[in-house]
Amino acid sequence: MKPALKRGWRDLNTVQFGMTPAHALTLGPMDTATGSFLDLLNGTRGLELLREEGRRMELPDGHVDTLVRRLASAGLLDDAKGGGPAGDTLRGKKEALDRLRPDLASLSLTTSEPGEAISRLTARRSLRVQVRGAGRVGALVASLLSAAGVGEVDVRDIGRVDPWDVTPGGLPAEAIGDRRDEAARRTARHCAPDRPPRRTRHTRLGEESTGHSLVIIAPRDDVAVHAPSPSATEPLITSGTPHLYAGVVEATGMVGPLVLPGETPCAGCLHEGRTDRDPAWPRLVAQWRSGTARTRDVRPCDLTLATTVAGLTAAHALTFLDGRLPSSAGARWEVSLPALTWHARPVWAHPACPCGATEKGEGEHPSDEEESHETMAEHRPSKELRRKADAKRLAGTWRAHV
Ligand SMILES: [Zn+2]
């Protein structure tokens, strides 16, 4: 039984596994003898031994097999010896596995097959991720991914560590004055639960050009966060490299969109969509960008907001790296101080953008799009309120494109 789910009796015949709506389910009818038999499913006994225990507890013939089948099909069973040779290797490294135990338990809730959780965890070790930008957000994202078991986390940036780059979990105070990229790479390596595997030169599907499973774009420059330049990520689009945007701009944290080139909307789509809605957008962006070139001001970036954004960015990245599609595909999560209400702004695929995401059918049927985005974001709070707000905006009460 997956120990991650709390177990409780709803009544004399029904067991509830789990506490929260996202992952809880009930199983019944179940008699008390079978219920106490569940305690034996703790990974220490094989099926043969379990059948023996069942006979001893006077459970009917075949009952144990049926029960195990039912639990497995409900996604409630794990395999204590699963994960193949990579699983065995990780189990052999007790210290590394101990550090990752809560992460493994969490993966057991989002996977259904026995042994799948440890397979996902070990698969992270063979992944290469690049983080572009090593400020308060980027350096922490790199550390989090490394700590979560991603085998290779590369960081790109220029310049040297400024005092205001320092964050808990990100760049340390000792690194002030050091090269920013090197310091962030070093910090990320220190966070790894285990020595990363030696890099091998092999080409994986979709990694032909950069060799990265994912590139995270977390600029220190807040104009680049707010108005990401489509030309900066053109090589990623061309090479089909998935990338995820994140950052803080003027006390607003942003996570997304996650771009799967040719499939989900990209920075070009975002730019075209904003220009459609506001003809002044390109003019403003040009002014903001030229302003950035002239000044080297310290930009607003609240420590806790940056940390929050980094955490959510790493979580979206891991969901994708673990083989699922997070809600940042086709949307940008935003949160502003001081109210800190999260909401997702949809990013539509745009027909004028050369990335080809519209050809996937996403941008061609607004009604379908609306539906898919609503479904994707079903856990968002106050969906109804947002819908009303959107309708209001469409009626002509634009609050500028911020
Ligand atoms: Zn595009």
TrEMBL record:
Signal peptide: none annotated. InterPro entries: Bacteriocin_synth_cyclodeHase, ThiF_NAD_FAD-bd, Ubiquitin-activating_enz. Gene3D superfamilies: NAD(P)-binding Rossmann-like Domain. Pfam families: ThiF. Residues 125-355 form the THIF-type NAD/FAD binding fold domain. Residues 357-402 are annotated as: Disordered. Residues 373-393 have a biased composition (Basic and acidic residues). This is TOMM leader peptide-binding protein. It comes from Streptomyces lanatus. The lineage of its organism: Bacteria, Bacillati, Actinomycetota, Actinomycetes, Kitasatosporales.
